[in-house]
């Protein structure tokens, strides 16, 4: 709840006298905590300058936490470390970084588009037995907290229309950035609904793959990263054009070329949660719709091996083959295209396949998946990246030979990674790799003959 207080311009003597008299009476009759609360409000009212305007942001709206309070708390935490002398620090298991909060009665100054504002955390101690408790547990609040935001009253509109929304937006971004990535899959059977749902307890996504460790062609990597950057900063574009803020990627290529690794790198780069959809656990199109609707903003929906996961190849036949009770390709396309056009924001959809040629043309049509990314066999630039990751070297006399062989045989990054993880020194690893590449080359030559 945000409430506002106008400043009184003139402290009036008689008013003060009345207050003193009331105070004496009140001391006798009113609980001390409530009195403190009233006193603090009154003194504030009389001491402020006539040009100031104050917005009070209370921690609770009825029984619920106030989102503006939470946003202010997160936003001011970062400001506090530079502008006040005492902060509170904390970190929970779900968070990647430390979080800071300002302490009670601390003031934090901020400047927004040339407007100076002041925030203050007001805490009123109360006896738990005398107030309605905000939570059931024994650590129920024993103080009433609120932030007071004070500024020149001529900036009232700007503060309401731009500054407070800005604080909320920044707090949201910080919250997203600080949350550890989670992965969910639809492998939890709901005994009441008789179907699989997203597992309630998400698993922490600890995959270390990043764009620094992913070994793909440098140009391709730059292109993908630019595409992701453009996507996340395009809120205004999507709003203006009325398009759903989502982007679809089709990753295709042989096994072991890094499709799943690229998904992990994307999730780590964007800090998005992963929703790994197993189509074999989806009963019908209706369940699919529900699963997709349940995916929150800033998530990546992954459907791996789309070609062999389910019979999605031929839409003409799908009615006869699947009837109405199964997931069909059009059901999938409608769920992805239709639903997300009206619900949610910042969704990325990734399909992977080893056989792009087996996919229904409806999936490949321009505009369906925004970007088709071909992950292929290892070239020399990708190899050098793998060597840096696995052997921590950037140069070696055997590189020339390897570069030559990589131009002659097809080998996946996964196969090279396997050679480089052998328990031996760099030279031995590279020699073993050369031998295996030469063996591949011989097999290839024999097949041609
Ligand atoms: N481009 C790559 N960069 C770094 N490591 C890679 C790359 N490709 C594969 N690897 C290594 O090989 C392993 C398997 O790769 P990954 O699972 O990403 O392949 P995939 O293309 O998804 O294969 P599949 O088609 O079988 O699902 C990874 O765990 C990683 O160690
Ligand atoms: Mg994979």
UniProtKB/TrEMBL annotation:
Any GO MF annotation of the entry: ATP binding
InterPro entries in the record: AAA+_ATPase, AAA_N_dom, At3g28540-like_C, ATPase_AAA_core, Mitochondrial_chaperone_BCS1, P-loop_NTPase
UniProt keyword Magnesium present: yes
Keywords: Hydrolase, Magnesium
Positions of the AAA+ ATPase domain: 245-379
CDD domains tied to this protein: RecA-like_BCS1
Family that this chain belongs to: Belongs to the AAA ATPase family. BCS1 subfamily.
Protein name per Swiss-Prot or TrEMBL: P-loop nucleoside triphosphate hydrolase superfamily protein
